[in-house]
Amino acid sequence: MVAEHGRMAGKKAIVTGAAGGIGRAIVRAFAAEGAQVLACDISGDGAEETIRLSGLGPADGVAMGCDVAKSADCQAVVAAARNAFGGINVVVNNAAWFMPRRPFAEVSEEDWAKNMAVNLDGPFYMSRHAVPVMTAGGGGSIIHVASQMARVANEGQTSYCTAKGALLMLAKGMAVDHARDGIRCNTLSPGGIATQGMIDMYGGRAQAEEQWGKPKHVLGRLGLVEEIAAGAVFLASEDSSFMTGTDLLIDGGYTAV
Predict the structure, then answer these.
(1) pLDDT value at position 3?
(2) pLDDT per residue over 117-133, tens digit each?
(3) What distance separates the 2 farthest-apart alpha carbons in the chain?
(4) Looking at 125, 160, 202, 254, which residue is catalytic?
(5) What is the average pLDDT across 9-34?
(6) pLDDT score at 5
């Protein structure tokens, strides 16, 4: 059962990219704050594990496989959440794809297309299908998980930076268009976070901290998935009721210098 009290008591949420890392942490934080959650991911098994770890029962936690680059998959997720919970109050567009680093001139058209399909089209599709349901239910909060690289470039990551930067403007446009429907839309931009993917990329936690955490972040370390999840709870709950069309940057000072 979901908690009767908490900052998200009564909220009905969809979280994409929920099989691990930031997405899993967000699902667990939402559950702890009293929300019902549909967790979806291209790995349906991973989404199921997330729901199990969240402690949500069958009536309050649903797991689905979903390729956010496919509009039909997103439509199915929205329909499942509406049927399971009776509505939708919160959507967190967290699913992302990281292409191998390479200079702009060496980026293939196929890699560019996949990057945009997952990192930009996915949030568009999920939001486009969810907005009518949210409007009918009186509104809610949509969160696009962007990145500190929506604001600053990183070598070999032009396509990723472009997609994440576009999410900031997508949120602004959606905020303006749907304020009258009671829907708020913001972005949440993490800095370098100590996900398993990040740790594996650098060959270990210590190496990731030395090569990426300390030199890139004013606070001298990588962030924790729980710190990003706390930001998501803030944006999803009434604590941020006067925020829309803006970016919550949780980057340990990455963009401060």
Answers:
(1) 63
(2) 999 999 999 999 999 99
(3) 54
(4) 160
(5) 98
(6) 76
Q: Is residue 160 annotated as a catalytic residue, yes or no?
A: yes
Which residue type does 50 have? Answer: T
Sole residue written with tokens 């710190």: 227
How far apart are the two ends of the chain, measured CA to CA in Å?
45
Q: Contacts by 221-224 with C-beta closer than 8 Å and gap 24+?
A: 221/252, 222/191, 222/192, 222/193, 222/194, 222/198, 222/252, 223/190, 223/191, 223/192, 223/193, 223/194, 223/250, 223/251, 223/252, 224/193, 224/194
Report pTM.
0.96
Amino acid (one-letter) located at 82: R
φ, ψ (nearest 5 deg) of residue 193: -120, 140
Place of tokens 């470039």: 153
At what angle are helices 21-32 and 225-236 packed, to 10 degrees?
Answer: 50
Query: Of the candidates 170, 182, 148, 165, which has an alpha carbon nearest to the alpha carbon of residue 257?
Result: 148
CA distances (Å), 208 to each of 25, 52, 110, 150, 223, in order? 20, 29, 29, 21, 11
Kindly write down the DSSP assignment for every residue of the chain, as one continuous string: ---SSSTTTT-EEEESSTTSHHHHHHHHHHHHTT-EEEEEES-HHHHHHHHHHHT--TTTEEEEE--TTSHHHHHHHHHHHHHHHSS--EEEE-----PPP--GGG--HHHHHHHHIIIIIHHHHHHHHHHHHHHHTT-EEEEEE--GGGTS--TT-HHHHHHHHHHHHHHHHHHHHHGGGTEEEEEEEE-SB--HHHHHHHTSHHHHIIIIIHHH-TTSS-B-HHHHHHHHHHHHSGGGTT--S-EEEESTTTTT-
